Amino acid sequence: MKKIEAVRFFGSQRKIAKELGVSEQAVSLWGAVIPEKNALRLHQITNGKLMYDESLYRNSEPHHAGNYRQTEGQR
Fold it and tell me: Which GO molecular function entries does the Swiss-Prot or TrEMBL record give (predicted)?
């Protein structure tokens, strides 16, 4: 789900944050694509009016600080 779609639906990042129970700052840190967990929640909250688009998340891997490895070129 794209962030712009949610902003259009709710009217502001503040309202998105309120619906999800997160800070407005958290929402402002999202990129153009809403994190998958939040996209699924918004899909449920809006009874499908905001559509979860699986294709936006298919090739992504979760990024966890503990899983970060430097490559030779980064050292």
Answer: DNA binding
